[in-house]
Amino acid sequence: METQGLDRVVIAVKDLDKAAKQYSELLGVIFWDAGPQEEQGVRAMVSWNGQVELISPVSAQSAAAKFLERKGEGVIGVAWKVKDIAEAGDQMTAKGFRIVDRFDFPAAPGFKLFKEVLLHPKDTNEVTVILVQSERE
């Protein structure tokens, strides 16, 4: 599998609105409020031009909540673009990496296709590696 470059860096924060304002001022980017992502137990804000996603837990059981409790605010994941998500997932499994989740966001605004595979952070130096296949409208 060969990646097609960085998709975005994912940062877990306690106060999503405050962090979005801070990063907007810092990077000169605009964030889009993706709202609650119920499957993941987070609320997310994304800056596609800044390649940054901010997440804040809405569920105490979410990976983001557990991350914040253990480590505090910071980079929780790095997302890389791939051409074929199914093939990339299969290749990672064959190489011994554990997949912790798969997401398909059929209604992601601005996208015809948006799918993710998340690798277990214990297999990737305590950072969740996210493989992304997306196609903009």
Structural class: alpha+beta
* Coarse shape: globular
- Low-confidence runs (pLDDT<50, min 5 residues)? none
**Mean of residue pLDDT?**
93
Secondary structure tally, helices: 3
Secondary-structure map with pairings?
Blueprint (H helix, E strand, L loop, with lengths): L5 E7 L3 H12 L4 E6 L4 E6 L4 E6 L5 H9 L2 E8 L3 H10 L4 E6 L6 E9 L8 E9 L1
Parallel strand pairs: 1-4, 5-8
Antiparallel strand pairs: 1-5, 2-3, 3-4, 6-7, 7-8
Describe this structure in words.
By secondary structure, the protein is α+β, with helices and mostly antiparallel strands. The protein has one domain: Roll (2,3-Dihydroxybiphenyl 1,2-Dioxygenase, domain 1), CATH 3.10.180.10. The protein contains 3 helices and 8 strands, in the order βαβββαβαβββ. Strands 2-3-4-1-5-8-7-6 form an 8-stranded mixed β-sheet. A hairpin with a 6-residue loop joins strand 6 (99-104) and strand 7. It is globular. The relative contact order is 0.20. The model has no long low-confidence stretch (mean pLDDT 93).
In short:
This protein has 137 residues and is an alpha+beta fold. The chain has three helices and eight strands; from the N terminus they run E-H-E-E-E-H-E-H-E-E-E.
Labels describing this entry:
alpha+beta; 23% helix; eight-stranded mixed sheet; globular; single chain
